[in-house]
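hiii, so i know i said id send this last week but things got crazy w the move. better late than never?? heres the sequnce for the chain we talked about at the cafe, plus the structure i predicted for it. fair warning i was half asleep when i ran it
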Amino acid sequence: MPILPLTLAVITHNEAHTIARCLDSVPFAAEKLVVDSGSDDDTVAIAKAHGARVVHQEWLGFGPQRNFATTQCTHDWILALDADESLSPELVAELERELPALMASGAPAAWLRRRTVYMGRPMRWYRPSVGEKLARFYHRGRARWTDARVHESLRFEGRAPTFNAPFDHANNPTLPHKQLKVLRYAELKCRDWLEKGKPVRMWQAPFVYALAFLKDYVFRLAMLDGWRGFLIAQTAASYALYKRMRYYEMRHNPASVAEAEAVLKRHGIDR
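okay and structure toks below
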């Protein structure tokens, strides 16, 4: 595939086990940029060995970190991947055909479809893990990431095409990995809520758990993926409930914010 004037941008922290696969899956990028927030494993060395330019930036939160990465890119067109994501050969072939015309157009962005590998193999039915649409290819003059600490999204105006072939997400290789991520993401989301002064509605808690489980297990078809689907639905429902319990604690015991931040940093969960 010819080299295209675009930048692959990846934000990292201790991603030595996945960063090489991520970088190597995008052979057509004229530039590969890694914005690292202080890895103490071999992430930086591996990234450089696989052709990336590495920039250090202390952690700002997911949205601000991606916006910082955008400013460091040499090219206006940017492909944003996480370190545990990689392009499939099918998507590489599709991009080879379609990207030149897209980049010559006035489009602000493009949607990609993500498939998730969970417990060692792809999910077959659970909708968010089979063809989930995410805006990951964009022109930096026409799109910007939200400033959310977690669950950031790309904002733009105008129509954006969708590529059909998937890219792959090696999601949480073990349940402990997933539980640690849930703990971290919940803390970040609650800090966002706290800054915005979101009301506490603990009366919703029992309903939130039940509805979140029902949504994923039944309506998003997790039940068709067997026990793996049950575990995904249970984890999602627990996350929805835990966020509200933790936020309740933050509002009623403000000192817990700093106390939790300290212990999470001590164990390498927060940074």
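btw The longest strand covers residues 109-118. thought thatd interest u
miss u guys!!
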